[in-house]
Amino acid sequence: MNTKIRIDYYQYANNKLYIYEGKTKNVNTKDLYQLIMYYDVLVDADISVDKAIIVADTIPEDVKKLIKMKNKCKDPNDNNYNLEYQYWMNMDRPVSKLRKQQIEGIN
Asked: DSSP per residue over 70-81, as a string?
């Protein structure tokens, strides 16, 4: 089965894959779960995710706490999750440098 998933943004450089879930204003726990779902699908497809980042103007405390809790858990490959949050104003790279597209060919 060939599946397509649409991740908001991703960055692949120096053999590292960073995936992003971006929201224009603020995020909630459902947005974070969406990012975790993308992470798990990629790992299940033998695609290593180095970091999964949720980005918004504001990040509520419940989302920050959930990230901290989830990072103590193991992903499907028995590695710790590597989730983090960032604010749009503090992004290292402008969004224009990130790719917005599907990652295809996931079996």
From this structure: HTTSB-TTS-B-
* Whether this model's pTM surpasses 0.85: no
CA distances from 88 to 5, 20, 48, 58, 59 (A): 23, 12, 25, 9, 11
| Of 4 and 74, more confident | 74
What is the distance between the alpha carbons of residues 78 and 7, in angstroms, rounded to a whole number?
Answer: 23
Q: Is 15 left (phi over 0), alpha (psi -120 to 50) or beta?
A: left
d(CA 79, CA 91): 26
Q: Are 91 and 2 in contact (CB under 8 A)?
A: no
